[in-house]
């Protein structure tokens, strides 16, 4: 006579003699919540990432927008409105690429990744947790930036569904691309201590050549061509198509918003980040072998 199966313990998913782990997606969600708690505990880093785009927008709007100065042919566009798209794009870059490249490098250097690798947590769930943390924190940061721009600088927000649709896909694709590139680049610094010194200059250079701090059309042609290789230029251009009036499309170097090229370049960098990341990502420090 066959013995009856041991009953499951309510709410545990356990049966006698074996355990059933949750799925990768469920573990990824749980990891995202944990990553968010740890992220917001680092108050100095959070304040910098959240405040930086807002402060830079305030500086540019105040310094360049004196006496009603505008960008472009008359009647022109107020400086706060023109520079807002670049600040949204650079905020995404800070929350995704810079944040992950530095934090993962520090976790590896402190041995956290090595210990985590010894647990049953799937690697995919760990990376899903990182991406979930980036999406949540970046959404809060972007919402604060748009609120400040609208309330303090009277920047008009998009009023059409098509504009918000463009915002959504540029934002999501840019966040995903920045995240996978941040994971891949986290293997470049030799230690957690050197990660900021290695990552931040890269982000600053990209900001200067990608039309974040300057009118992109005013940059030298060689700098424009160099910026066109990297994703930040395309994120900023995509965001300009959302927050600037249709007439501003003719100000672009190509005379077009180039949505297809934006999607293609961001998608290409997403694939590059995935391929390089899977080949170079390390769970242990270099001196651990």
Indicate the proportion of strand residues. Answer: under 5%
Q: Structural class from helices and strands?
A: mainly alpha
Query: What is the total domain count?
Result: 1
Question: Could you give the count of β-strands?
Answer: 4
Order of helices and strands: EEHHEEHHHHHHHH
Radius of gyration: 22 Å
How much helical structure, as a percent, in the residues?
A: 55-70%
What does this entry look like structurally?
The protein has 289 residues and is mostly helical. It contains 10 helices and 4 strands, in the order ββααββαααααααα. It has helices spanning 24-41, 43-64, 79-109, 112-117, 123-152, 161-185, 192-209, 221-227, 231-243, 259-280; strands spanning 14-15, 18-19, 70-71, 77-78. Strand 1 and strand 2 form a beta hairpin. The longest helix has 31 residues, at 79-109.
Which properties best describe this structure?
289 residues, disordered N terminus, elongated, two-stranded antiparallel sheet, 3% strand, antibiotic resistance, cell membrane, mainly alpha, 10 helices
